Amino acid sequence: MTILFAGCSFTNGMELENKKKNRFGNIVAKEMGHLEWNEGKIGAGNDYIQRTVQNAVIGHKRYFSSPLETIGQKTHKYESMVPAVGKRRQFDALRNKLKPREWEQDADAWYDGKIDGVYKQVFQNNRTYEKEGWPDLVVCMWSGINRLENLRYSAITKDWSWVVSAWGQFTLEKDNWKAGLDSTVYIDKQYEPGESDYYRGYVMRIRNANYNLRLTIGNMMAVKYMLKAKGIPQLHYLFSSGQYKPLLPLLDYKTYENTNNWWDSMDLNRQQCVDELPFLESEGFYDMAQRNKCRFGVKDHPLEKAHALMAERIIGDIKKNEFLK
User: Fold this and answer.
1) What is the pLDDT of residues 154-164, one digit of tens each?
2) Shared domain check, 218 and 310
3) Spatial separation of the C-alpha atoms in residues 261 and 138, rounded to whole Å
4) What is the pLDDT of residues 119-165, one digit of tens each?
5) 189, 205, 221 — which closes off a domain?
6) Is pLDDT of 110 > 70?
7) What local confidence, expressed as pLDDT, does residue 103 receive?
8) I need a labelling partner for 203 at 20 to 30 A (CA). Which of 103, 159, 185, 191 fits?
9) pTM for the full model?
10) DSSP label at 204?
11) Whole-angstrom Cα distance, residue 237 to residue 40?
12) Domain presence at residue 307
């Protein structure tokens, strides 16, 4: 019997000394006599959570988490990718003016023709197939609303992988709810030269918190009603209240449909969303850890005491709802 845990680095147990033992997912599964199936991914957003739960259920294959093992490696030689002179002038004219971040300097060096080298593509596995079927319980810890993923074709390895964009520093402009210009965002380094600038511009200046919140609620609704249709018990939590409670009033903003003309949308308001998803107003894992004066890692992840408290909370909810009887 398995419990599926979906989320970001908080669910994964990042910065724990022994995450396989001490993350809340393992503590809960062990207490309930089940196997832990943990799909927490560092930097993941809510589109990832919806995709993962959907695929896990519709794929009809049960897994459980096993020790991380390296199962293969490929070595790729790559040459600097310098655009032709004319193309470079055109590209320079279009470059997004938001300043690059320090962790993307190697991508900029690609563009300037300074890098030739070798990239090692390491393949790993951390799950074991059990049998056909689906989890006995799904626990989602919803991530930040402003994160998103992309199925990226690698300029080095020449294959496809799901990659995330995550924030190092994040502020919001209150007039349009876009990311502030002092925000910093991680963009994967294996795009073609210049593409990271376009992607950063999209994440920071095209997407906005009003849209991202509504999209996240769509992710949550899709997971809720798919699991309900399959008869699979479910529990939902927030990784932090900070990206939810202060922004819920945005759901009461007037919105329109617009092509050439404007007409009223059928968007749900705050009360309708909260009635469907009461956990939107709940205390997040991060906030619970702060309230209980738990220690955090250097990258601001809750550590052992916080995971033990979160496990206790989930176990209490399982028993209260009479799941896994």
Assistant:
1) 888 999 999 99
2) yes
3) 43
4) 889 999 999 999 999 999 999 999 999 999 999 998 889 999 999 98
5) 205
6) no
7) 34
8) 159
9) 0.88
10) I
11) 13
12) yes
Are 176 and 63 contained in the same domain?
Answer: no
Q: How far is CA 317 from CA 32, 35, 248, 314, in A?
A: 12, 18, 24, 5
Question: Are residues 245 and 263 located together in one domain of the fold?
Answer: yes
For residue 162, the enclosing domain spans 80-115+149-205
Least confident of 158-167, 272-281, 287-296: 158-167
Instruction: Look up residue 182 and give its amino acid.
Output: D
Beta carbons of 143 and 239 less than 8 angstroms apart: yes
Task: Give the C-alpha separation, 214 to 216, whole Å.
Answer: 5
Read off the pLDDT of each residue in 101-107 and give the average, rounded to a whole number.
Answer: 39
Look up the CATH number of the domain holding residue 63. Answer: 3.40.50.1110
- For residue 208 the two structure tokens come to 């906005």
Q: Is residue 74 part of a domain?
A: no
Q: Is 46 helix (H, G, I), strand (E, B) or coil?
A: helix
CB atoms near residue 187 (< 10 Å): 22
Q: What are phi and psi of 20, to 5 degrees?
A: -60, -30
The conformation of residue 208, written as its DSSP 8-state character, comes to -
Q: What percent of the chain has pLDDT over 70?
A: 88
